[in-house]
Specification:
Elements lengths: L1 E5 L19 H12 L3 H6 L3 H5 L1 H17 L5 H7 E6 L3 H9 L4 H19 L4 E8 L2 H10 L3 E7 L2 E7 H9 L5 E5 L12 H11 L11 E2 L6 E2 L2 H10 L7 H11 L3 E4 L5 H9 L4 E4 L6 H11 L12 H10 L2 H4 L2
Parallel strand pairs: 1-2, 1-9, 9-10
Antiparallel strand pairs: 3-5, 3-6, 4-5, 7-8
């Protein structure tokens, strides 16, 4: 059984789209995406420097557009993807890419949402200097205690001994100076404390925008960031996408969902690498591929032929009402650190 995953902010690197734009029609599609988001994604994907790409309003549309551009080289429609994949998922902003890949959102709807998401999150981040740092290793209970002592939030629980701490720059610097035992603290190239209460203003902006949107039904289940639940109802998925802006990402629970499905292969779309590295630590024996450049397409097609179309072994997906009830019943501890 095959799953496709889409990375989040921080995965972008200067020039990562340059080789993709050599493919027929790719530059035209990216120019169309640029018109939708009001930003020159061609330039940002080829010549913009790391400092430019660190800007949330630049990075988020670029990552979503890049993932959809690479996916288009493998599948012409969500129906084709559904014939091959048992599930999809995206980390943070990559969840929007996953929703569009699955057909719950059109590419244009996803691009408008990510445009406004990036702008709103950048505005929220500008209210106070904040950031994020990866905490690698250490005892989980001690890591949690140290983060609490510094007033930081475990914004990403990625599994495999990796937690991403988020909060003020002062608190992150204190964490770096006094890390948990046997843990390493690595600052991330992001411009704010995403998936924390610092992003609350952005949630309201997106709620107002999403109210006028008509999502569709996902052709393939999307493993949701909040809890790993498999979601196909478009309205429920949209509600989760909006709320997730200020809630922790539980990628560890998404990975557990893949395991329950019986995953045998995992493909990460461009800009790829981060999620494959996590999968290698947590999904032993599962074949993985980071689809970084068009040179990786042949191997991706081989994995699709070898692993695609397998029947998942997970329980029946939740209905939209069950998904809403489950989320309403969760405590903050269940969806957070």
């Amino acid at each position: 059984m095959l799953v496709f995953v889409f990375p989040g902010q921080g995965s972008q690197a200067p020039g990562f789209l340059a080789p993709w734009l050599e493919l027929p029609g790719a530059a035209d599609r990216l120019r169309w995406a640029s018109a939708v988001v009001g930003s020159d994604l061609v330039a940002h994907g080829t010549v913009s420097d790391a400092d430019t790409l660190r800007d949330t309003a630049v990075a988020q549309p670029l990552i979503v557009a890049g993932g959809l551009l690479a996916l288009r080289e493998l599948f012409a429609s969500p129906a084709e993807l559904a014939a091959a994949a048992g599930a999809v998922a995206g980390h943070s902003v990559g969840e929007l890419t996953a929703a569009a890949a699955a057909g719950a959102l059109s590419p244009e709807q996803a691009l408008v949402l990510v445009r406004e998401r990036g702008r709103a999150m950048a505005a929220a981040a500008a209210q106070r200097p904040t950031g994020m740092s990866a905490v690698l290793g250490g005892d989980p209970e001690e890591v949690a205690a140290v983060l609490a002592r510094h007033g930081l939030t475990a914004a990403n629980a990625n599994g495999g001994g990796q937690v991403v701490a988020a909060g003020t720059l002062e608190a992150l610097e204190a964490l770096r100076a006094e890390p948990p035992a046997k843990a390493r603290v690595v600052p991330l190239q992001v411009a704010g404390a995403f998936h924390t209460e610092h992003m609350a203003p952005a949630v309201g902006t997106l709620e107002a925008l999403a109210a006028g949107l008509e999502p569709g039904t996902a052709a393939v289940p999307v493993a949701a960031n909040a809890d790993g639940a498999l979601v196909t109802d478009g309205r429920e998925l949209l509600r989760r996408l909006v709320a997730q802006v200020s809630r922790p990402v539980r990628w560890d629970l998404c990975t557990e969902a893949f395991a329950r499905l019986g995953v045998t292969a995992l493909v990460e779309l461009a800009p790829a690498g981060t999620l494959v590295n996590l999968a290698k630590r947590q999904l032993k024996g599962v074949e993985t591929l980071a689809l970084r450049t068009p040179e990786d397409l042949d191997r991706a097609r081989t994995l699709i032929a070898d692993h695609g179309g397998a029947t998942a072994t997970a329980p029946t997906q939740l209905t939209a009402a069950q998904q809403t009830q489950q989320t309403q019943q969760q405590t903050p501890q269940e969806v957070g650190p």
